[in-house]
Specification:
Number of domains of chain A: 2
Strand order of the largest sheet of chain A: 1-3-2
Keywords (chains A, B): DNA-binding, Transcription, Transcription regulation
CATH class of the largest domain in chain A: Mainly Alpha
InterPro entries (chains A, B): GntR_C (IPR011711), TF_FadR/GntR_C (IPR008920), Tscrpt_reg_HTH_GntR (IPR000524), WH-like_DNA-bd_sf (IPR036388), WH_DNA-bd_sf (IPR036390)
Strand content of chain A: under 5%
Helix content of chain A: over 70%
Largest interface: A-B, 28 and 28 residues
Protein name (chains A, B): HTH-type transcriptional repressor CsiR
CATH architecture of the largest domain in chain A: Up-down Bundle
Distance between the termini of chain A: 48 Å
Order of helices and strands of chain A: HEHHEEHHHHHHH
CATH superfamily of the largest domain in chain A: GntR ligand-binding domain-like
Structural class of chain A: mainly alpha
Number of strands of chain A: 3
Oligomer: homodimer
Number of helices of chain A: 10
GO molecular function, one term (chains A, B): DNA binding
Radius of gyration of chain A: 19 Å
CATH topology of the largest domain in chain A: Four Helix Bundle (Hemerythrin (Met), subunit A)
DNA sequence: ATCGATATTCTTGTATACAAGAACGTTGAC
DNA sequence: GTCAACGTTCTTGTATACAAGAATATCGAT
């Protein structure tokens, strides 16, 4: 389906905020953006409203729309929440995932292993994402799946950095195998616990890296 | 802070959708709404976009904005997700809740008991809401607290009906006491389990009532 | 040089206009 | 009577205009 101009612009702006092209507190100027995109202010205003409602910017009435990059505390909280959502997905998936789903999950993890063998962190990152999305799908709860995808997407720029730690890909793969085993065994608690710990480690690695950069 | 007109209209429309004033699939006519609220289409369009982005309506480009009342399956999924979010809040709160917070929680539950004694389901409903919000706060994770509040608010029209079941208030109160005990004991798993079960029962009661009405 | 008041400029929120696409009604053929 | 094509009407998406409020600049007094 064809997106209207305002929606296209919203996607472009969200990507730019993700990439850090605008720093925290930057005011998104309607007139400048209208010039930049070659449109009137109306679709720009509509696009900015999307950013505000998704939490990537905040609006102060009659003052403007300001970019909001999450600080370290908020990121920690988001990773904690992501860990709990993934644990919930794992719990449901352990009972509800079909045999086909388990097959796809195992294959996604094999592609993760191939990426580790190649020392390919970009490939690992993509296959890791697909691995987790297979579990969200396996929870067989569309609402929870959407919530998990939304937060996974929100944390995308930060999830990547954890792979910079030496040995993290190998460790992550090992954790994946424990997750797959728990799901195959139909062990709800084990699936929940291994997933929660797996994502918690992601958040911790991120915090450690940020702490290192700020010194 | 003073809300702009568009935001005021959005709140009014959201309340109307909550209350079921618009049935599922109803097209929200920009021109009619502009007349009704005595404004131009511009703030109406902005308000409608809020409804779309919060999931209460869907937009089909160049066709219009249509109200989306969740069906039974989606409601079940939302209650399931709510149960998992509350379990997560309970897990964190068991370790992080302050003594003052535990005091406030116990007092909120005493007000629930008073409402049961009066056979006051409206009062119970309000105090029950405050009870749960105290646990969200006690999780000491602002992001998770906002997510839980958002879904609690979304499920508001449906949570109320469960109290129509005979004996449900007394049962709910009993479950509350188990929750308070688990939090006081600092038992993360018990807190999570009792909260998850408590909210799952809410969802189940709702389904049973809907099934009865549809016959 | 600094500070407060006032004036000016700029940006936002809303109103209105217009083009394009969708929905609906009418007409003619079968 | 039904269906397809065409014409008309209505609604949406975007452009532009304007008023109001916020931000910034300037000027005068100390």
């Amino acid at each position: 389906m064809e997106l209207k101009r305002a929606d296209q612009i919203a996607e472009t702006l969200e990507e730019a905020v993700f990439k850090g092209e605008y720093e925290d507190g930057h005011r998104l100027d309607e007139i400048k953006l209208a010039d930049q995109f070659g449109v009137s202010r109306t679709p720009i205003r509509e696009a900015l409203q999307k950013l505000v409602l998704s939490g990537m910017a905040e609006q102060i009435p009659r003052r403007g729309v300001f970019v909001r990059q999450p600080g370290p505390v908020e990121l920690l909280e988001m990773f904690e929440t992501m860990a709990e959502l993934e644990a919930a997905c794992g719990r449901f998936a352990s009972a509800r995932m079909s045999d086909e789903g388990l097959e796809r999950l195992a294959r996604a993890n094999e592609r993760c292993r191939d990426a580790v063998d190649r020392d390919d962190s970009a490939g690992y990152y993509l296959e890791n994402e697909a691995f987790h999305q297979e579990i969200y799908r396996g929870a067989t709860n569309s609402f929870l799946e959407r919530e998990a995808l939304r937060l996974q997407n929100r944390l995308k720029p930060y999830r990547r950095v954890q792979l910079r730690f030496r040995g993290r890909m190998t460790q992550s793969l090992s954790e994946h195998e424990a997750i797959v085993d728990a799901l195959k065994a139909g062990d709800a608690e084990l699936a929940a616990t291994t997933l929660r710990n797996h994502v918690t480690v992601q958040g911790e690695k991120f915090q450690q890296l940020m702490a290192g950069l700020n010194q």
